[in-house]
Write a structure and sequence with these properties.
41% of the residues lie in helices and 15% in strands. The strands form 3 sheets. It has a 6-stranded antiparallel β-sheet with strand order 2-3-1-9-8-10. A 6-stranded antiparallel β-sheet has the order 4-5-6-7-11-12. It starts with a strand and ends with a helix. The protein is α+β, with helices and mostly antiparallel strands. Strand 6 and strand 7 form a beta hairpin. The chain contains 26 helices and 17 strands.
Length: 615
Amino acid sequence: MSGILGIWNSQKPTPWQRMLDDLTVFGQDGRGDWHDTSVGLSLGRAQFFNTPESSHEVPVIEYEGCVLVWDGRIDEREPLLTGRSNVTDAQLIIESYRRWGIECLRHLIGEFVFILWDASNDLLFVGCDVVGARTIAYHWDGQTLLLSSRVLTLLLHPQVSKELDQLYLAHTICNFWTHPPESTAFDSIKRLLPGHALILKSGELQKRKVAELHVAERYQLPKSLEDYYEKFWYILNQSTKDRLRSYRSPCVMLSGGLDSTTVTISLLNQLPSVDAFSAVTEVHPEFDERKPIQSFLQRYPQVNWHEVNCDDAWAFSEPWERLPITDDPYINPTSSMNFRLMEQMQKSGCGLYFDGEWGDELFYTTLLDLAKTGTWQPVWDSLKNQKPWYSSLWRELFVPNLPKYLQNKWFARCRRKYGSLPTWLTPSYRNTPEIKTAIQQYFESTLPASPGQIVALLTQSGGYVGLRQVARLFSYVHQMEYTSPLQDKRLMEFTINLHPSLQNDSEHYKIFLRKVNKNYLPADVLWRPKENYYDPLKYNGLGKSEYALTMMDKFHKSSIFSNIIDIDFLKNKLYFFREEFNQNYSHWQSFHNDLANKLYKTLVLIDWHERIQAY
């Protein structure tokens, strides 16, 4: 990932070099900038070579009267190349803009975000891909436009306030994960939505939705299931092949689940062999997946397997003060294990790792979709197994079809009855407008939605986008790039338009993905149920990590939380959990999980905010 930076019409002295230096966490292969004082515009890039062609690009590209800084990779290059060779992706972006204008976002496929200056039209164009694989943060106050790959870089500019977005904070501290689209942790900074453009012309900034995933008007059953399975593999293999056009040696992060094994098979369809890295542990048996992995390896001996011991890796086990501060207050409990894996990948000479991200989001359906297509039998079967059945019937089938004003009344009723906020929130904070709005947005998000709607929600939600940006930052700290061929426009459009009956099974989750693998995966991988594997890492971190206590001590330095959190209550809950953990915890059980989730989220938020103050 290259870090890109843009500043237009700054009203205060800009710490340009400091801001550009801040982006070298993303790329250290090259760095450069461009300035035009006559229009008050500066562009810069800290480069990370990710494709063979990128190593031939200068950091700031000037071509066909345009100036470009960008990050990513363009796929399906052949129609754009028109028979040429030795053409960089940056040139293709500029040529596409010259051909289609702003609408070029509809025609470009891949992972990308860019800032393009067209002097002949006095126009600054910022665009990103339709699936949100790359994004950019921006600040606009009506006079000055600031753009950066990293949210925190913008905080270095004197015109940008560190004031938190209070609605974002409410969603975060309540662990709702339904943050509004575009939102970041900071009130004056937003993120560009997938498929959207920022267009600055004559001092006016316009935001426009240009591209979106195609969703068919109606679902259609295939004439042949085998043809659908074959089409899935064709698209996945093409997606994998495009990602293998890399400057760096590839590998895969392999678990014993469906998603990563499917991606590994696709890699082997392109390569004679592949290196695979897996976390193994004697301490966390719930996490250890050596048995299904060994079964997979027997079927595919061309996989060079590296087992990485992660006995000492759990939540809060890393020295976070030595790592870059994240844009968002999200540290996944698996991060420590992922660090161990990336360290071994790097030592083995790998620089690009594949994983199965997005498998859970793409392969499912809802009762509402089944009902809409007249697939009633699984609807009745599901309702019969839910207690009380009429409550599920109301929530799953009736509420989504109510007029908007009646839905709002229902959500308001749910909000008034909601009693699952963290118990350490102060009474005054519980009654703030932000908390009430966050609860309502949470219930609105629980409405059954089509796969296409869910994908759109996840690619736009401030929380989910922030979580993925944190993962991307940590990979680049290790000079690694990660990618998932499942997060691909072509594959996403294929899966979200599958007939709901192909995604439904009363016994097995992700049934379509299982069936496309029926000839490729061993049975103990193909039909294996997979639980939430990271919970034990979270329990251990809260239960025995000294860093959890250190975070609590930092609370007193964070005055912003004094009116939000009852510190004594929070401490009591943490000490209660630690005592319970030391006396009663046993493997293979959910252990005060709701309390653990809320404690974990609160402690990470406190630690993050304390570090932000010194940024």
